[in-house]
Amino acid sequence: MTGSALKRLNFHNCKTEPNEQDGNAQAPDILVTYRILESITSNSYNITELNLSEIHHCTIFPFTYLHNLKYLKSLSLSGCAFKTPESIKDDICDEQVDLTTLSKKCNGIEKFQLLACLWCWSSPSDDDLMSIKKWKKLRSLSMSRVVSLRVCPFLYHIANDCPNFSYLEINQIGDPNVCHYMHNVVHILQKSKNLYFLRINQTAFYPMNTCFESCSIS
């Protein structure tokens, strides 16, 4: 098979080995992983499914490596893909570290998953995910244990801007003891006429919340 014929790519978590000096487990060499990713994506432009949710990013994730994937429909990332070390923030451009440019380069995304990193709790803020609304073909969104999220205003815009949206899964995002995002979920229930699957697994979730009573869901 030629590289351009590759359709699906999954990066699985490598078995970690203890550091020889202190015995602590170490993440696989992320720079090697990035070089492999760059080599594959620069030659396999027909990839439609890309799963990077098991990669721990101890430095800036190069979103620019994905800009060549014009046919990408499904993308899975770990929360720390949005990590930007404070010491180098001034030396990088926005397109290297966020979804803004990616949403333009890969505008056919239909499925997006954002999962907690297996190694750390670093995760994006509400603002970091606002560009999701630019994926007009988005059908499915899953978020699990993304601790930095709060109100999730992008859900409101998905309901307005993504007419085919049909699948939403939320698992313990932000503070599990509150549900600040619930009014945006209600907006999806009201606006997303194709919605057929909704799962909310949150410690503080109360199905009889007044925000459901105060609206008419048709």
Key structural traits:
7 strands; single chain; 7-stranded parallel beta sheet; globular; 20% helix; 218 residues; 15% strand; Leucine-rich repeat domain, L domain-containing protein
Describe the secondary structure blueprint for this structure.
Layout (H helix, E strand, L loop, with lengths): L7 E3 L19 H14 L5 E4 L21 E5 L20 H7 L5 E5 L24 E5 L8 H9 L5 E5 L10 H10 L5 E5 L8 H4 L5
Parallel strand pairs: 1-2, 2-3, 3-4, 4-5, 5-6, 6-7
Please describe what this structure looks like.
- It comes from Caerostris extrusa (Bark spider).
- This is Leucine-rich repeat domain, L domain-containing protein.
- InterPro entries: LRR_dom_sf.
- The protein is built from 5 helices and 7 strands; from the N terminus they run βαββαββαβαβα.
- The chain has helices spanning 30-43, 99-105, 153-161, 182-191, 210-213, and strands at 8-10, 49-52, 74-78, 111-115, 140-144, 167-171, 197-201.
- The model is unreliable at 14-27 and 87-96 (pLDDT under 50).
- It is globular and about 50 Å long.
- Helix 1 links the parallel strand 1 and strand 2.
- It is an alpha/beta fold and 218 residues long.
- The protein has a 7-stranded parallel beta sheet with strand order 1-2-3-4-5-6-7, with no helix packed on it.
- The longest helix is centred in the first third of the chain and has 14 residues, at 30-43.
As a whole number of angstroms, the C-alpha radius of gyration is 18 Å
What's the number of helices? 5
Query: Which band does the percent of strand residues land in?
Result: 5-15%
Numbering strands along the chain, what is their spatial order in the largest sheet?
1-2-3-4-5-6-7
Mean pLDDT: 82
Shape: globular
Q: Write the element-wise H/E pattern from the N-terminal end onward.
A: EHEEHEEHEHEH
Percentage of residues assigned to helices: 10-25%
The quaternary state of the protein chains shown equals single chain
Give a quick account of the main beta sheet: strands, pairing sense, barrel closure. Answer: 7 strands, parallel
Count of DSSP strands: 7
Question: Structural class of the helix and strand makeup?
Answer: alpha/beta
Distance between the termini: 49 Å
* Parts with pLDDT < 50 across at least 5 consecutive residues: 14-27, 87-96
